[in-house]
Amino acid sequence: MAELTSRQGGRVAVRKPQVYAWVQDYGVYAAVLALLLFNVLFTPHFLDASNFRTQLVQVTPIVIVSLGMALVIGTQGIDLSVGSVMALAAALTVLYLGYGWLPALIVAVIGGAVVGAAGGALVAYVGVQPIVATLALLVGVRGLANVLVPQLVEFRNPGLIALGSSSVAGIPVIVLIAAALTVIVLFVVRRTTFGRQVVAIGGNRSASELSGLPVKRVLLTVYVISGLLAALAGVLATARLQASDPTSLGLFIELSAITAVVVGGTPLTGGRIRVLSTVMGALLMQLLAATLIKHNLPQSWTQMVQAVIILAAVYATRKRGTR
Amino acid sequence: MRRTELEAVLEAKGISKRFPGVLALDDVSLALRPGEVHALVGENGAGKSTLIKVFTGVYRPDGGELRYQGGPAAFATPMEAQRAGIQTIYQEVNLVPMMSVARNLLLGREPRGRFGVIDAAAMYGEAERVLAGYGVDTDVRRPLRTLGVGAQQMVALARAVSVDARVVIMDEPTSSLEPREVETLFGVIRKLRERGIAVMYVSHRLDELYQVCDRVTVLRDGRLAHTGPLAELERLKLISLMLGRDLNEVRSDGLTSFSRDHAGEPHRNGQAPVVEARGLTRRHVLDGVDVSVRPGEVVGLGGLLGAGRTETAKAIVGALPLDGGQVLVAGAPLRAGSTAAAIRAGVSLLPEDRKAEGIIPTLSVRENIALAALPALGRAGVVSEAKIDRVVEIFMRRLRIKAASPHQLVSELSGGNQQKVLLARWLAVRPKVLLLDEPTRGIDVGAKAEVQALIDELAEEGLGVLLISSDLEELVEGADRILVLREGAVVGELSGDEVTEERIMATIAEQADG
C-alpha cells in the first residue's frame, strides 16, 4: 500500500519535488555565490587577499570538525563531544610539546581517536543513544582537558607556530590541510566500501545488518574518525593562537558543525552524506556573518539570519528525505 | 446458548476503512455479546488490527456504524474508548516500566490520604490483594520491568479489568507466556465471562481458541469470511476459511508461474544438504526446528501466522538469537548470531518486511543491488565502479528491473521492482541457498509471475531455496517438499504426492499432543 501511495504521489507532483531536489542539491552553492556576488558589488575591500585569507582561516576548524560530523550524522548519529576533543587536543599538544611539535600533534590526535572510540563503543556496542553518549563526553572531556592544563599556556615552539601562520603560494597551510582532508573524506564517502556502508547503515540499519554489513564496527569507526578530525582541528587552532586554551577552545563548535552539515543538505535522519556541500555550508555561515558585520549590522542580526537559513535548509531536506 | 439472545454490547455494522491504495475493511459486521469470549482470527492483512483499532478509537471508520451499549458510538480518541469501558491488552505491554508494580496497577486511581497525598501503604495493600487473584505473587514495590513478561502482562490485564471494563480486547495475549501462565490467564478469562464482560480474543493458536472461546469471527482480505459458534466449526474448516481455500475447489494446477516437475528429480535425495539446521530453539518462538535444503531443491515452510516460519529463516542466517541449535553449511557449523558469516558461507535471507529490513530508501537502485556484494566489488576497500556497473547491469537485465536508470532512488520504484532489486542484491553474492520470506507478497501480478519463474530457474541451476509463503498455491506449486510448522515446531513433512493444499491444511489442523 505504501508503494502505491508513493507511486501516485510521484506522478501527481512531478514538478515540485524537482524544484526541491534542485534546492537541496545546489542551494548552498547558489547561496554562497549570491553572497559573494553581493559582496563584490556592495562591500568595499571585500576582494582584498588579506580579507579573504582571514575568512578562510577562521572557518578552517569548523570545516574540519564538520567533515567528521557529516559522517556521524550520515549514520543517524550526532557527535557533541567535538569541541571538548579540541580542548583536549590543545592540552595534550602543549603538554607534549617538549618532544617536538610533530610527536605532540600525534599524541593529541591519538587522544581524539580514543575519545571517539569511547563514544563509538557506547553507541555501537552498548546501545546508548548518540546524543547521550557524546553529551557525557562533551562534559567529561572538557573537564579532563582543564585538569591537564588549568589555564591558558603560551608557547614558543617555532614548528608549531609555523604550522599555524605560514602560507604556501599565499594560501595558509591550515587552509591547505583542511582542503586535503576534504578531498580525503570525499574519497572515503564516494569511493570506498566503508563509505558506502556508512550511508547504508544510516539509511536502514536492520537492512544493513541482514545484508551482512559490519554495522557495529562501522559505527565505531565513524566516531573514531570524528574524534580524530576534531583533535586535528584543535591542534591547528592552537597553533594559530600560539597558545593552548583548553577552557574556551572549541566551545559551541559542535553547533557550528551541525549547522554546516544541515545547511549543506545532509538530512539528520541519515542515509545521505554530502561532503562538499557541508564545506559550503560552513563557508556560507562564515561569509554571512562577515558580510553583516562589514555592513555594521549587530551580531544579533547575524544570529537571526542564520536561524532562517537553518530552517530553510531543513525544510528543503525534508521534502525528499521523507519519501 | 441463553447468551446468544442478549443484545450486543459492542457491535460493528458494515464497517469499512480505506487507506491510500487499499481497502483494509470492507463491509465488516461483528457483534460482541456480554459474557462471551469471541475469537477474531485471520492471516496477515486480513484486517484484524484495523478492526481492533476501529473498536478502540484509534481509527474512525469510513463507512458503517459502530454501536456500543445499544447506542451509536464514535470514539474520537483511544482515551474515550477506554473511559467508556473498552480495554485493550496488546502484545507489547504498554505500562510504565520504571514505576512500581503497584503504581502501574493503580495509575490514576491511587488511594489518596489527607491533602490528596497518595497513601502508599493502602496502595501496596490493594495492589497485592488484586494481583493475588491473578496468580501474581511479587513485591509490588519493585519496578514493573523487574517482572517477567508474563507477570507484566497479568498486571496489564488486572489493570484493564479493574477499571470497570465492559469489553476486553486481547491481542495475542499468550505469545510470551509460559504454559502455567496461560492456564492462569484462561482462569481469569473465564471469570470475566461470568461477570458478563465481553472478551475479544485474537490469537493464531487454534488449541487455545477451542479451549476458551465461544464464538469466532474469521476475516480474510478485509472481508468477513465467517462468524458463528466455535465448537461447531471443524478445525480444518476454520483453517480453510482463514487461508481462503474452498476444500472442494482446490485446483491442482492454477495461476502460479511455477513449471518445474517436482516428481521427476529423485536424484536429489541422494545429495547431501547444502544447509542443515538442527534443533533451532528459542523460548516462546522456536522449539527444536530441523530444516535441511539440498542443492536445487525448493523446500517450503507452511503454517499459520506466528507458527515460526519467519523466525526459522532468521535463525538460519543468524539474525535471531537462539537458546539452542546449530546451522551447518555444507557440513561445517556456522558461527552463531553472525549474518555476515552466513552470507559468506552462502546463505542469504530475503526478508519479509521489504521496507523495514530490505531496501535502503535513501540509496539508488544501483547501490542497493551492490550493497551485500561490496567487499567483493573492489580492492583494498576501494570500490570499483566498473565492476559494480557490470553486476548491476547483468541483474537489472536478467530480473527485468524497471527503473528510469540505475541511479534512480529505490524508494521510487514499485513494490515488485523493489523486490527484484533485493533479489538482485542476493544473487550478486552468489549464494548457495536463498531463504525467501514471502517473496511475492504485496507485488503486482506480473512481477509475481516473474519472481516465481525466477525461483524455478534458480533451483534448476542448483540453488537451494527455502520458500515461505502464506499463499498456499504458491507453496504447493513452488516447493518440492514442505515442512509444516505449528507453534514453533515442525509438525509434519510432506513430499511427492503429499504436497497438496488439503494436506497442508490438515497437518496444521491436527490436534497438538496432550
TrEMBL record, chain A:
Keywords: Cell membrane, Membrane, Transmembrane, Transmembrane helix
GO CC, alphabetical: plasma membrane
InterPro entries: ABC_transp_permease (IPR001851)
Localisation per UniProt entry: Cell membrane
Topology class, membrane: Multi-pass membrane protein
Listed transmembrane segments: 21-42, 54-73, 80-99, 105-124, 131-149, 169-189, 218-237, 249-268, 275-293, 299-317
Keyword flag Heme: no
Keyword Membrane part of the UniProt annotation: yes
Superkingdom in the source lineage: Bacteria
GO MF terms held by the record: transmembrane transporter activity
Name by which UniProt lists this protein: ATPase
Species the sequence originates in: [Actinomadura] parvosata subsp. kistnae
